[in-house]
Amino acid sequence: MNAMTSKPSRGREAIEPVVYIVDDDADMNDALADLLRSVGIRSRSFLTADAFLKTPIDMAPGCVVMDVRLRGANGLEVQRELIRRGVCVPVVFITGHG
């Protein structure tokens, strides 16, 4: 059986990627989660930087999609805090600000 047709070994579960959404706009949060769900990607949504930073980050592959302008801490401050904690996860910044 070649690598293209072999099945994963029993007992070895595939790790499902996760996208963390951090945006203080509930409608944007919902829209991004719906979009990701429509293509089969798991997500976790947060309306504040504090809520996100209080949550343990899965060891699964993934990334953070984060608004640059959040109430309280801004997205860049959150990214710096992740780095300070040794959390290595890619961050994609978004903004609705002109």
Write up this protein.
- This protein is an alpha/beta fold.
- The chain is 29% helix and 20% strand.
- It has three helices and four strands.
- A four-stranded parallel beta sheet has the order 2-1-3-4.
- Helix 1 links the parallel strand 1 (18-22) and strand 2.
- The protein is globular and about 40 Å long.
- The N and C termini lie far apart (55 Å).
Number of strands: 4
Unreliable runs? 1-11
Number of helices: 3
Q: Radius of gyration from the CA trace?
A: 16 Å
Give me some keywords for this one.
single chain; 98 residues; alpha/beta; four-stranded parallel beta sheet; 4 strands; globular; disordered N terminus
Topology:
Elements: E1 18-22, H1 26-38, E2 42-46, H2 49-53, E3 62-67, H3 75-84, E4 91-94
Parallel strand pairs: 1-2, 1-3, 3-4
What is the gist of this entry?
With 98 residues, this protein is α/β, with parallel strands linked by helices. It is 29% helix and 20% strand.
